[in-house]
Design brief:
There is one protein chain. Helix 7 packs across helix 8. Strand 5 and strand 6 form a beta hairpin. About 25% of the residues lie in helices and about 30% in strands. With about 270 residues, the chain is α+β, with helices and mostly antiparallel strands. The chain has 8 helices and 17 strands. The strands form 3 sheets. Strands 7, 8, 9, 10, 11, 12, 13, 14, 15 and 16 form a 10-stranded mixed sheet that branches. Strands 2-1-6-5-3 form a 5-stranded antiparallel sheet. A two-stranded antiparallel ribbon has the order 4-17. The chain folds into 2 domains: about 100 residues, D-amino Acid Aminotransferase, Chain A, domain 1 (2-Layer Sandwich); about 160 residues, D-amino Acid Aminotransferase, subunit A, domain 2 (D-amino Acid Aminotransferase, Chain A, domain 2).
Length: about 270
């Protein structure tokens, strides 16, 4: 069950909505604004890149939000949670929380299929709630076709995912490199963590989008998000990625990210800063 609170200086006021079927459904019922979504670790006491998530909200009071999060997460501490923080253009702040549902292990072992779309963010650098509404039809299409994610394409280049960042592994003279777009994308928190985790432990990192007419260059591919971590991609549209299975370099990145999370997840409570 999803629970939502509006943040006040002295207390949290729980808010109820007609549609509590998903975090996106709740967000659509709030005034337009900005948001960030992440998962918790260590029984709701830590989150990866929490400071970066808070900075996505233009007028956030980090100490107040951390204190509010600590309070709101109390009923979820038996396991883990998925959290969305929202700041509306009217000046209100909201916390929406649902129990974390981990992806099946086979998703990480077998990889996923994705499709491309020409849908675009109005301002790629800003995580606006308006994009949730604008992408509703695309999300429904993915669900109907049992496709895991949509990749946003502009000028023939794959930039990012609908709810994720996109990476691909190429090779020149048998020397591999890890690549991802840098311009025209939302600079995801997990994207940054993956780049940090990968450097020094794997191939060179390059900032270069993958062109649709050069899909054959991708030996491996994966997407990243705060809630799902590193998810291998084995098919883009009708094109198989590499051998059509999860590659060894992607597996190494996944392990490196998991280790990074364990060592770098931030304490949520304000007095832990």
């Amino acid at each position: 069950m999803i629970r939502t609170w509006k943040i006040a200086k002295t207390k949290l006021n729980e808010v109820r909505f007609d549609d509590n079927s998903s975090l996106d459904a709740v967000t659509r019922q709030l005034p337009d604004g900005w948001y960030s979504t992440f998962r918790t670790f260590d029984k709701c006491s830590r989150a990866i890149g929490l400071s970066a998530h808070l900075r996505r909200l233009p007028n956030a009071d980090a100490s107040l939000l951390r204190a509010s999060l600590t309070q709101a997460l109390q009923p979820f501490r038996a396991a883990e949670a998925r959290v969305r923080l929202t700041e509306t253009r009217r000046g209100g702040f909201y916390i929406s929380i649902e129990p974390l549902k981990l992806l099946p292990r086979e998703i990480y072992e077998q990889g996923v299929r994705v499709k491309t779309t020409t849908l675009q963010r109005r301002d790629p650098r800003v995580k606006s709630t308006a994009f949730i509404g604008a992408s509703g039809d695309e999300r429904e299409r993915l669900a109907r076709e049992n496709i895991f994610e949509a990749l946003l394409v502009k000028n023939g280049k794959i930039l990012e995912g609908l709810t994720s960042n996109f990476f691909w592994i190429g090779q020149i003279d048998k020397i591999p490199y890890l690549a991802t777009a840098q311009r025209g994308i939302l600079l995801g928190v997990t994207r940054t963590m993956v780049i940090r985790a990968a450097r020094g432990r794997g191939p060179e990192v390059r900032f270069s989008p993958l062109r649709l007419d050069q899909l054959f260059l991708a030996k491996e591919a994966f997407i990243t998000s705060s809630s799902r971590g590193v998810v291998p991609v084995v098919q883009i549209d009708d094109a198989r990625v590499g051998q059509g299975r999860v590659g060894k370099r992607t597996e190494r990145v996944l392990r490196a990210y998991d280790e990074y999370v364990i060592n770098h997840a931030e304490k949520i409570e304000p007095n832990a800063l």
